[in-house]
Amino acid sequence: MDGSNLVTLAVVMSCLPGPEELSPCLFAESLVMVSESGQPVGQLSVSVRPACYEEQGGQEEDCYLVRAASQSTVNDVPCGSSLTAYISKRLETLEQHQHEYVKVTARWVPLSPLPALPVSLQHEVQTQSFSYSCASLHGLISEAANLLVLRVLARRRAVPQNTTFLAFDTEACICTATYTAMGFQKQLVGMTEVEVFAVERAVCPDEGIPMAWQFYFLSDGHLARRVQVGSPATMLVLQLPILIDVDEVEPRPVFEKKPLDWEDDVQLYSQFLDRKEELQAGHASYARRHPELRALLADFLQLLLLRKPDDVLTFAAEFFAPFAAQRPPGSTFRASDQASPFRAASKRWALFL
What we know:
The protein is built from 7 helices and 13 strands. By secondary structure, it is of the alpha+beta class. The protein has an 11-stranded antiparallel beta sheet, covered by helices on one side. The protein has a two-stranded antiparallel sheet with strand order 6-7. The chain starts with 8 loop residues before the first helix and ends with a helix. Residues 19-106, 121-232 form the Ciliogenesis-associated TTC17-interacting protein N-terminal domain. This is Ciliogenesis-associated TTC17-interacting protein. Belongs to the CATIP family.
């Protein structure tokens, strides 16, 4: 079997596995099996929930626990199946157990014209073992993983063309399973008419007769109807479930910056005047407590007017540098041939601008 013809899981699921798309698919549901005459003859239950799978060596992996069970009566013969599996968030099957049964008991079979004779059955147990390499199972979607894939496709309301995966047939042999979109239909659930999205899954073994199932989903991935092609029974949901709504993350609101007309606002303008008077009073009080401030500023202005430098900022930095509290200790008098760090910084700043 050529694996290059298969659509890989990463292509079909695009952004999967991802919690944002798989989380809404974790729920339980149940359907009733109805015969052609409309009589209930069985039921189907499916549940998917988060779980933790313990691998060999004690390592644990977050995954999904998938359970499915069906019971029915066909021609007065009870039968059913159960499925339990651990599916990784990449939709890989970590472990799966599947069990099918048919309860056949001894009964009387009339043979005319002879009297009824008892028919006895003997139990015979057969065991078969199959093994495959990991490379040959690349792209395998088991029966349990198929339930998740169908729910995701149902929520997307679309199936990529030529969607084909590896699967197991009834004899546990590797085969292909194709998924095809059948469009939208109307279905009556209870007293409510709803729109359903139909997907067909066909399992095509290399030897034997292909089997196909048609699934009809509600908008949130709940199964509304399941039909096995060629079977007289149909799985139906009798009551419309509560649809799962995914809360969309709303973008954070953006508030435009409005101009503040504080001069026209009486309260803001009053606060401005109060703060202005407070600052002026604080400055005047500081100047009275430090009379040397006036003398220092007078010396600076006098020297500034005498020198008339082109770069007033650099001149001011050099003048007040000796008064800096974090100035490193050194000579009070600067040598005439020593480069000023303020002028070098001023040149770098000019180049930057």
